[in-house]
Amino acid sequence: MSGATSNLLQLWQIPSTCLLFGRSKLPKGSYLVPKMIRNPVPCFYKCMQSTSYEAVVHGSYVPSPEANQKSEVKEKASNVPESIGAFQKLPMVMPSVDILHSAMRKAKRVSPTKGIANVAKRERNRGAKQLDALMKELAIPLRTYQENFPNKKYLHPYERSLVELTLGDGNYEEVLGKVDALRKKVVSVGKEHASICAKSLSKREAEDRLSEGMKKLEEIFHREGKAVDELLNIAKILRAMPVVDLETPTLCLVGAPNVGKSSLVRLLSTGKPEICNYPFTTRGILMGHITISYQNFQVTDTPGLLRRRDEDRNNLEKLTLAVLSHLPTAVLYVHDLSGECGTSPSDQFIIYKEMKERFSYHLWLDVLSKCDLLQESPVVFITEDVNSDDYELAKYRKMGPDGALRVSVKSEVGLDELKSRVHELLASQFVKIQSKSNQENLEVHG
Ligand SMILES: Nc1nc2c(ncn2[C@@H]2O[C@H](COP(=O)(O)OP(=O)(O)OP(=O)(O)O)[C@@H](O)[C@H]2O)c(=O)[nH]1
Ligand SMILES: [Mg+2]
């Protein structure tokens, strides 16, 4: 297979910093805008704006009813559940300093309306227009992000799990919320200062009001623009996640930690996942692509599963469950009965039974890894008084589940058989995907 096998590996991991996102990169509660500052514009200012400042600048950022309708349509359109691939469509986020510098530059170039002879009038017109321009230049990118980062609840369940597990529960929404709060503040403070500037009585006053307003907006953006940088970081993390194609047959390697999953992924594809003799070496989902006989397949390596309740699982284990729960994948379940991996055979048996029961609808292949360390010919002793659970476990300790294939990466035992069984499994997976999509087509077209 190796000759005909091409491989492209993509790995996304949960680095310890990401697992602790809430505590390190995105400290929970930091950069939060105090409530008082968030809504600083008393409503009488709003009335003033519509009479003086907006008349001065010939236009406003207040969305017209038409614009409101458009955004409602957009909101409705984005309610359609997304298929996989939303992360690749995320907008490019500009660093907050770049947004600020570009906005300042553009605003300063705005000239007063032509034909105003009176110096004071011209200056206040210029000031109000520049502040309005600055406010818009700052707010528009933020609105674009708000509109183009999908609402988490409309993501494919697999991608929703990834957002929660890699960024930390609630962080995605929290950061988007902070960006929106910043936008609202920029709009209200910008309008407030443009309005004040528009009422200046002298050239000097208009200049002072302009520079005050610019300084205020700059300060706000400097202080709270971190939310934009957090969003940029989120986009980077999400965009880097491997693209999963739901139409391509996938093989997912599952098992307890340290049982040899990554070693087998290396063997089945030409990818190079990290291999170490300690649990949780694999800290994310690794996606490998293999081609067998001109057919493309996906292989995912997953973090190991421990014997414990779902509530107690770490985010790495939850990632594995997300793959099994939400992706149409065949399972290559790896058992290590050599006593080397750190999870006892009886615990592995319990984890296995739970997974098999939960995900019995997946196509499935069991392997016993590290068979170079196992006894040559397993013998099962059955005594009269043993109950069926003990018998099952005793049998598992010796031979693993029925039909399990014995393999060793070290001594290369069983590898050819494994490759051909994997090929068969993926071919069946292909047929399964095809028949499902044919059925869906039939349902759609009558
Ligand atoms: N003797 C022997 N050791 C093996 C074999 N396969 C893997 N190992 C060793 O087992 C250890 C764990 O292998 P990995 O492939 O990293 O196991 P894993 O299941 O991916 O581990 P996690 O990612 O931590 O869950 C490494 O030290 C490997 O060298 C084998 O066939 N024989
Ligand atoms: Mg691994």
TrEMBL record:
<dbReference type="InterPro" id="IPR041623">
    <property type="entry name" value="NOG1_N"/>
</dbReference>
<keyword id="KW-0547">Nucleotide-binding</keyword>
<protein>
    <recommendedName>
        <fullName>Nucleolar GTP-binding protein 1</fullName>
    </recommendedName>
</protein>
<dbReference type="Pfam" id="PF02421">
    <property type="entry name" value="FeoB_N"/>
</dbReference>
<feature type="domain" description="Nucleolar GTP-binding protein 1 Rossman-fold">
    <location>
        <begin position="316"/>
        <end position="372"/>
    </location>
</feature>
<dbReference type="Pfam" id="PF06858">
    <property type="entry name" value="NOG1"/>
</dbReference>
<dbReference type="Pfam" id="PF17835">
    <property type="entry name" value="NOG1_N"/>
</dbReference>
<dbReference type="InterPro" id="IPR006073">
    <property type="entry name" value="GTP-bd"/>
</dbReference>
<dbReference type="InterPro" id="IPR030389">
    <property type="entry name" value="G_FEOB_dom"/>
</dbReference>
<dbReference type="GO" id="GO:0005525">
    <property type="term" value="F:GTP binding"/>
</dbReference>
<feature type="domain" description="FeoB-type G">
    <location>
        <begin position="250"/>
        <end position="307"/>
    </location>
</feature>
<dbReference type="InterPro" id="IPR010674">
    <property type="entry name" value="NOG1_Rossman_fold_dom"/>
</dbReference>
<dbReference type="InterPro" id="IPR027417">
    <property type="entry name" value="P-loop_NTPase"/>
</dbReference>
<feature type="domain" description="NOG1 N-terminal helical">
    <location>
        <begin position="87"/>
        <end position="245"/>
    </location>
</feature>
<keyword id="KW-0342">GTP-binding</keyword>
